[in-house]
Amino acid sequence: MQRLLDEYDRYLSGRSPVPHRAYAPTFDMRETQDAYELEGELPGVKEEDVAIEFADSQTMRIQGHAERAEERKGSWWMAERATGEFQRSFRFPGTVDQDMTTARLKDGVLSVTVPKIRS
């Protein structure tokens, strides 16, 4: 509630409507017999603005940048969607196959499949 009041105050004063800030997008993760499957919400994010990398054999990091669409006419009165830099890290219980990991961004949902390495 306080954030909305602050944004409304900025709107009334003519100051910048929403500062860019870091955030952590929400993800769902499930485990299958062969892989870990993640789905995260990234509305309006372009594929080229997302990077997926592995910090080590069990840790994956998803990071990127989300921007608000161009203003046409008028000012934002309310802005609830997160913008700015984002990052999430996921640590898997076992070693994963980094080379066979696949990702797809469609309709604002990032789907990542991380295959397990069987011992």
From TrEMBL:
<dbReference type="Pfam" id="PF00011">
    <property type="entry name" value="HSP20"/>
</dbReference>
<dbReference type="InterPro" id="IPR008978">
    <property type="entry name" value="HSP20-like_chaperone"/>
</dbReference>
<feature type="domain" description="SHSP">
    <location>
        <begin position="18"/>
        <end position="119"/>
    </location>
</feature>
<protein>
    <submittedName>
        <fullName>HSP20-like chaperone</fullName>
    </submittedName>
</protein>
<dbReference type="InterPro" id="IPR002068">
    <property type="entry name" value="A-crystallin/Hsp20_dom"/>
</dbReference>
<comment type="similarity">
    <text>Belongs to the small heat shock protein (HSP20) family.</text>
</comment>
<keyword id="KW-0346">Stress response</keyword>
<dbReference type="InterPro" id="IPR031107">
    <property type="entry name" value="Small_HSP"/>
</dbReference>
